[in-house]
Write a structure and sequence with these properties.
By secondary structure, this protein is an alpha+beta fold. The protein folds into 3 domains: 150 residues, 3-Layer(bba) Sandwich (FAD/NAD(P)-binding domain), CATH 3.50.50.60; 53 residues, no CATH class; 130 residues, D-Amino Acid Oxidase, Chain A, domain 2, CATH 3.30.9. The chain contains 10 helices and 20 strands.
């Protein structure tokens, strides 16, 4: 065990953990360490992100998501500009394809204006065609604040700045246990014991387990949902100019299959949302008996399944049948053909699920003695990472005890 006692240890080397570390180092000199279980940073949700800089359109005004996304979006653009990270404030179109979706589009427009999205405007069908010539819709919404970036590059820049400020980042270090006394906390890891005065849990897909190991009841359980993508073949990239989204179903926290132009070229289509059989289950064949047992013995999962079984069947159908996936995309892009897209990557979302089956929609942060546990930070967490990091750093300043 090292003689060093850190002021703060952060578990999780994804974009939220790194942004939190960065904001803490900007506030005061600290002995700080970031612990990452994998052999590289941003290995999971951050590294499998679609790369969208979200506008703040979808989130309930006044919610943590709304406040942090709006502030974090502009901070992200400024950060990328300052550090020479490729990005594009390209805007997006949200498209209604059926009259039943128009009231929901009205609500989205009102929500966006309440969240301060100046410049959003309604689009008639011919105006949709002016922006996205190949997209079909009966009504639309133009959102100029949306953009694209490579969040792994952003995370790498955060890490560089943390190290420059004297912070330590340690990979291949999985947290496996916790003990404490009045002066310090002792973290058991696969690389030995680490001593720290204060602890921040940004464990993403493992955050509820980290909380329990620290003696904190999270009140939720993480259920992993895999989102699978297709990519348009190069000859059909011209079908999509920027970003095209459907009107989301408010009963479900996912946005529906959509089209995203990527910052390094190419166009992604998706994702669907299906139960992953492992918390880090990026393919259908990766299975963890432990993870499945936890899901299937959790009352909240069965409450969710009873409520959304029809939607879930549709998502699994798209997962196993390319024809079904393409048909869903053709609602927005009728010219798309079966052979125009091929399977691409996948991501896994750490979705916090309450015991009554409610999918937590907002960010969820729990404080304990000299600990902060980030227990739900789904999209737009990457967009909002600098703002979330600032929020957590402020919480730490109020309740943590730092060394002299």
């Amino acid at each position: 065990m090292s003689d060093t006692c850190y002021d703060v240890a952060i578990i999780g080397g994804g974009i939220v953990g790194l942004a939190t570390a960065l904001k803490l180092t900007e506030r005061r000199p600290l002995k700080l360490i970031v612990l990452e279980a994998e052999d590289q940073l941003a290995a999971h949700q951050t590294g499998h992100n679609s790369g969208v800089i979200h506008s703040g359109l979808y989130y309930k005004p006044g919610s943590l998501k709304a406040r942090n996304c709006v502030a974090g979006r502009e901070a992200m653009y400024e950060f990328c500009q300052e550090h020479g990270i490729a990005h594009d404030r390209c805007g997006k179109v949200v498209v209604a394809t059926h009259p039943s979706e128009i009231p929901r589009l009205d609500n989205l427009e009102a929500r966006g204006r309440a969240n301060g999205l100046d410049g959003i405007r309604r689009l008639r069908p011919e105006e949709i065609k002016e922006i996205e010539p190949h997209v079909a819709g009966i009504d639309g919404l133009w959102v100029p604040q949306t953009g694209i970036v490579d969040y792994k590059q952003v995370a790498e820049k955060y890490a560089e700045l943390i190290r420059r400020a004297g912070g330590v980042i340690q990979t291949n270090t999985r947290f496996i246990g916790h003990a404490s006394n009045r002066r310090e906390q002792i973290l058991q890891t696969t690389q030995g014991e680490i001593r720290t005065r204060n602890l921040i849990n940004c464990g993403g897909l493992q955050c509820d387990r980290v909380a329990r190991l620290c003696g904190v009841a999270p009140g939720i359980q993480i259920v992993p949902f895999r989102g699978e993508y297709y990519e348009l073949i190069p000859e059909r990239h011209s079908l999509i100019k920027n970003l095209v989204y459907p009107v989301p179903d408010p009963r479900f926290p996912f946005l529906g299959v959509h089209f995203t132009r990527m910052i390094h070229g190419g166009v992604e289509a998706g994702p669907n949302a299906v139960l992953a059989f492992k918390r880090e289950g990026y393919t259908k064949t990766i299975i963890s008996p432990r993870d499945l047992w936890e899901v299937f013995t959790y009352d909240g999962f069965w409450a969710l399944a009873r409520k959304h079984w029809q939607i879930s069947l549709g998502e699994f159908n798209r997962s196993f049948r390319k024809h079904a996936f393409i048909r869903a995309l053709q609602r927005l892009l009728p010219e798309l053909r079966y052979e125009d897209a091929h399977p691409a990557g996948a991501g896994v979302r750490a979705q916090a699920l309450a015991p009554d089956g409610a999918l937590l929609d907002d960010f969820h942060i729990v404080e304990a003695w000299r600990m902060i546990h980030v227990l739900n930070a789904p999209s737009p967490a990457a967009t909002a990472s600098l703002s979330i990091g600032e929020t957590i750093a402020g919480m730490a300043e109020r309740q943590f005890e730092f060394g002299s």
